[in-house]
Amino acid sequence: MSSSLLLTLVFAVALVAGLLVKFWLASRQIRHVARHRDSVPVAFAKTVTLAAHQKAADYTVTKARFGLLELAFGAAVLLGWTLLGGLHALNQALLSWLGGGMLQQLALLAAFALIGGLIDLPGALYQTFVIEQRYGFNKMTLGLWLADLAKSALVGAVIGLPIVALILWLMGALPSSPWWTSWWLVAWAVWMGFNLLLLVIYPTFIAPLFNKFKPLEDETLRNRVTTLMQRCGFAAKGLFVMDGSKRSAHANAYFTGFGAAKRVVFYDTLLSKLSPGEVDAVLAHELGHFKHKHIIKRIAGMFALSLAGFALLGWLSTRVWFYTGLGVSPNMAAPNDALALLLFVLAAPVFSIFVSPLFAQLSRKHEFEADAYAVAQTSGQDLSAALLKLYEDNASTLTPDPLFVKFYYSHPPASERLARMITGASA
Ligand SMILES: [Zn+2]
Questions:
Q1: Peptide bond before 412: cis, by omega within 30 degrees of 0?
Q2: Which residue from 417, 413, 410 is spatially nearest to 374, judged by alpha carbons?
Q3: pLDDT at residue 61 greater than cutoff 90
Q4: Which residues make Cβ contacts (< 8 Å) with residue 215, sequence separation at least 6?
Q5: Phi, psi values for residue 208, rounded to 5°
Q6: What is the Å distance from ligand 1's center to 11 Cα?
Q7: Rg, the chain, Cα only
Q8: Which residues are tagged catalytic?
Q9: Which of 180, 84, 63 is CA-nearest to residue 128?
């Protein structure tokens, strides 16, 4: 069997196997949540009303059903791009129009992003204006939604095109081996530097394009939060309130930046729902992520994974079967680097899905550690109360399917987190 046919087969088998696993998990989740819809779990009987519990169940089931549709649709689109020849046709059309050069390669990436974005548009609209709307979460008008879309496309083009052009140039200018002078090693370093830069400029330059950030004015809360941060050994450049209510009723808080430039951002929706003690507990949880070096570990992990990814791409991009096996005949008279990038980005998730439970597991472990830190620094009672409000507010189900949780959940379900806090406090 040729390498090309072998890749086609392996790709198709992985795609179908992944789909079967995801469909099976989603149907388990839907059945499990529906089965527990009629009664609030005993542990929450005093704190959660039946109406809230049922709303969470219905919201979860609605999202899971829609997720199934999107899954099937996404697989069809992926097949369309690859084995059915969509990417090949797009590449050929641009080659005959622009000839083969940097311009054609950039046009291919831009056209792919544009078409992909348009294909995903109806689903995104449905999610916001039908599902989120029905459960009372959506606060966006169509005008704001469209303005967001235009802004993110523009920001994506302004930031994305130069970095992609640089990587394409490196791919053309440097060899793929030996590794110490290879394009993929240099491109990896460039890509990592770009990601770090993005982490620094995002809070100050990009996020304000979408939201307003005001300094936290409530003096009592400001003093409380500052005291907590000093006690935990943190310095922050500022405490900000973000107008999250402009788009959604979902509440959140986060911590961004590096070194002395760290800033704390509270959604206005969070401050309106939590008591000062509960805000403290949520912030202490975020500080816990820093204390346990979760952020640094995550970044280091991303560095290592991308290095492996770039090395693999460096090798694959020189094999003809990598292109032909995924439905594209490379044009040997022109550089195929943009094609290689696209095929890699399309095919990688088909295989990486099988390791994603490991990352979810690690993430849940980090959440438990951050919770334990928050309990030690503030009050377990405040943290449980805050989490319960947030789970209820986001209509997260209290009765997810345990296997679905293992596979997908980056945050442990409320029942596990609260139970852990109670046993943690008494131990
Ligand atoms: Zn967390």
A1: no
A2: 417
A3: yes
A4: 238, 239, 240, 241
A5: -65, -15
A6: 35
A7: 24
A8: 286, 371
A9: 63
